[in-house]
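Journal club side-thread
Mid-discussion, someone asked how the predicted structure for our own chain would compare to the paper's figures. Pasting it here so we can look after the session.
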Amino acid sequence: MIGPKAYINTKRLKNNFLTIRKSIGDKWLMVVVKANGYGHGALNIVKALKEEPNVIFCVFTIEEALEIRNSGISNDIFIFSKMHSSWLNIAYQNNFWINVTCFEDLNEISEFYRINKGCPKIHLKFDTGMTRLGFDYKDANNVFKVLDQKKYLPIEGIYSHLSTSDEGDLSFSLKQLDKFNNILNLSKKNGIKFKYIHCSNSGALLNLPNSFFNTVRVGMLLYGVSPSSEIKINKNLKPVMSFCGPIV
């Protein structure tokens, strides 16, 4: 062995996956492979898990999505980053799911649909307290009224992100979850249905089982790493990466 090397144990990866799958039941599982699979090699991860049922791969950039699609992966791929007009056509041609987070996004994707007679499938993100991306939760009713006028748009999912679900104090996460449930209730009153509903992340998988809905996102936990020093992980989840170097 020349120099230090990182080894990826795909057997542990699959065991972690199955342990997580067992804990969430019959739900869609979004596997986060952004940042090169948290350093584990995104292609290593997706190729090991592509045959598992109800698996969706999540990335941050269009470049990450293209790398996976060009490697022969046919699974659904969701792009977390803010929607950009420069790559909308690429997303449409490659059947990527995109993130719509503001009214400007809705207007732009509507115009794209008008010109191209179609557009990428959409997940709506609402900001319930993360303050990063997303429609303000107070605007939910207005969002659904706009969507009622744009029923042609392929709205596949709705989601939010819990900012402190990996902490010992869950009071803020519970407030976020309450806001998200209120948004879902408004969507029902407006007659708008979503195939995929997701709010949980790795921290919520360990801390907030009532946040699972019908779709669950998992990132660091899949790789056998706790998202925080404040919570312990299932003893059956093992680190997927080992890092070794020669004695000198």
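Post-session note: The two ends are 12 Å apart (CA to CA).
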